Structures are given as structure tokens and as C-alpha cells.
Amino acid sequence: xxxxxxxxxxxxxxxxxxxxxxxxxxxxxxxxxxxxxxxxxxxxxxxxxxxxxxxxxxxxxxxxxxxxxxxxxxxxxxxxxxxxxxxxxxxxxxxxxxxxxxxxxxxxxxxxxxxxxxxxxxxxxxxxxxxxxxxxxxxxxxxxxxxxxxxx
Length: 152
Hints:
The protein is 68% helix and 3% strand. It is built from ten helices and two strands; from the N terminus they run H-H-H-H-H-H-H-E-E-H-H-H. Strand 1 and strand 2 form a beta hairpin.
């Protein structure tokens, strides 16, 4: 799955929840998202920021769903993922230092271990956010884990 496909599969409600979360927790990520939406729809950023959150979220979702915005969507998901990286990386048993993976391409765990890690990770609080984190991780170009794709 490509990063832009993560956004194309998002419901308007999920896009709004994502925008609200990054507004609270990761303002730099929100800036990337809203700048992409403004550029895609040829809007002035000031105009977009004055719109209701629901409308901002829909423009963001539509812009980042486009294939031409795949690189921007990947960067946004990577930044978002780094804000909440530890628990998922630990669940997969990937060596990292403060969210930065050691090595260029992480090796996928064996299928049974991967299935168990994904199942355990999904059981935590905020299931929608956890699912987005899994998709954000899987959508990174450095991650080529067909077994994870199959689980999503």
C-alpha cells in the first residue's frame, strides 16, 4: 500500500480525527498536511486555516489521496509515525534509538511472530489510531513486508 492510499481509504471522520490529533500532538505534521491541501486546491493557506476543521480535514484527505502527492503523504505519515513510534517498533522487536531504526531496511519478523505482534498491538487503547500507525508504518518505502500488508 502506498502512502496516498492510506489517505484514500480514510473516512471523512477518520481524517477529521487525524487532523485533530496532529493539531494537538504534532503541529509540524499539521503544517505539512494543510500546506499540501492548500497547494493541491490552489487555496491561500490563510483561507484554509479559517475554514472549519471538518472542511480542512476533507481537503487534506482529498489532496493526500492523489498519486501526485504520494511523496508528501509518505513524509507526513513518517513524521506522524515518529511522534508515536516506540510502542509499535518495540512490538515488532525492531532495534531503534529514540524512534530511529537501526539499519536501512528492517527485516520482517517471521509470520507467526508478526501476526502475534500485530494482534497484541491492536488490542491497546484507541484502536483507530493504532490501525493508522500500522498503516503508516507499512506505507513507508523502506518497509517491504508483504506479510504485514496481508494483515492490514
